[in-house]
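Tokens for chain A. Residues wanted.
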């Protein structure tokens, strides 16, 4: 890394980048309210304003806030990423933290430790792959012992790391498993494959994992994400406890995966009376992911679940809603929040769709704090 920390400016004053920061100060900056700080190679960066620009999404940075991410940064980022660091530099970690040999003791391994760990990559094997549609696959990963808890709370994501056989580049993306079976030690991921088109470049991760042979080694880390569902309407959003009597779920494409995770948790708990409205947008019938599961959820939980599909390019025989998720559908099916209704919007999809939804809901009285983006 280049020297981004000149101690004295042209006027002879101590520059902000020469501040000495303690580990306690770093750990106290884990949210948008306090500032999002990370440490890399002994330097501290305030990346609060960079969150919307992060290619991997803001959830990854928020989850890493207040920690040392040196290893992950240099493993996963190019030289171009390193060049932007000086703009966010605010100081250095005190030498007592950097040099102390006792700051990173080995963690004891006990039988009850979950397989998934936030600070270390765990190897898994690509066990199966199934074609769900022309551009979507179901990948089954197997790695953890069938007696060991996987360790992924409902609503959280995992980081998946895979080495490109062509470039040797380590590729990392966040995904939400639709299922994690403790009995079989398996994790199921639904992944939309992005190939080269006239308007879009291929997806590095999706095409690499699609071409990976059965038996390939991959790596997982987590959990990451700001939302966690603990059941019966109880949620944790970046450390803030809240309760919802009704979820308005709005998704498009592979954005359905966190919704399925939450719907399954509610359906499997006889005491969970949380109501759910799901608006799910896709291009055509074949693109509707996990439709059988969604149909089953709605059929079994008729009093609680309502699922609405809308297609932008449906066949002539499609009897459901037509068009993208936009103002007309949102005002007709969602409308303004119910006073005292304890409602929460869960949103996951392409940036353009999310921006449209947030704009329409805001004009209809929904507050930003009522909307959770995955």
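Reply:
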């Amino acid at each position: 890394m280049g020297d981004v920390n000149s101690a004295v400016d042209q006027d002879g004053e101590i520059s902000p980048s020469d501040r000495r920061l303690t580990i306690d100060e770093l750990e106290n900056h884990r949210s948008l309210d306090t500032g999002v700080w990370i440490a890399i190679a002994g330097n501290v960066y305030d990346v609060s304003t960079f969150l919307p620009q992060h290619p991997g999404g803001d959830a990854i940075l928020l989850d890493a806030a207040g920690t040392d991410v040196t290893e992950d940064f240099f493993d996963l980022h190019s030289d171009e990423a390193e060049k932007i660091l000086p703009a966010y530099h605010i100081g250095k970690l005190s030498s007592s933290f950097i040099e102390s040999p006792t700051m990173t003791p080995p963690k004891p391994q006990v039988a009850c430790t979950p397989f998934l760990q936030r600070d270390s990559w765990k190897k898994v094997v690509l066990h199966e792959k199934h074609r769900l549609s022309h551009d979507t696959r179901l990948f089954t990963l197997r790695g953890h012992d069938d007696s060991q808890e996987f360790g992924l709370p409902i609503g959280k994501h995992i980081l998946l790391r895979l080495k490109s056989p062509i470039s040797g580049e380590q590729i990392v993306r966040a995904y939400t498993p639709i299922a994690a079976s403790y009995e079989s030690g398996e994790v199921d991921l639904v992944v939309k494959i992005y190939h080269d088109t006239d308007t879009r470049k291929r997806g590095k991760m999706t095409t690499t994992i699609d071409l990976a042979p059965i038996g390939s080694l991959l790596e997982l880390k987590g959990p990451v994400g700001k939302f966690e569902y603990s059941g019966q309407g109880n949620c944790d959003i970046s450390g803030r406890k809240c309760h919802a009597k009704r979820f308005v779920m709005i998704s498009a494409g592979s954005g359905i995966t966190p919704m399925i995770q939450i719907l399954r948790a509610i359906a499997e708990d006889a005491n969970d009376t949380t109501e759910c409205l799901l608006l799910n947008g896709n291009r055509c019938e074949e693109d509707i992911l996990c439709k059988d599961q969604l149909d089953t959820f709605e059929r079994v939980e008729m009093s609680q679940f309502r699922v609405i599909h809308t297609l932008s390019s449906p066949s002539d025989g499609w009897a459901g809603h037509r068009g993208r998720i936009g103002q007309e559908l949102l005002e007709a099916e969602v409308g303004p929040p119910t006073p005292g209704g304890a409602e929460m919007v869960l949103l996951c999809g392409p940036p353009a769709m999310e921006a449209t939804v947030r704009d329409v809901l805001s004009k209809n009285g929904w507050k930003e704090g009522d909307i959770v983006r995955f």
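DSSP finds ten helices and 21 strands in the chain. The domain at 16-99 is CATH 3.10.120.10 (Flavocytochrome B2; Chain A, domain 1).
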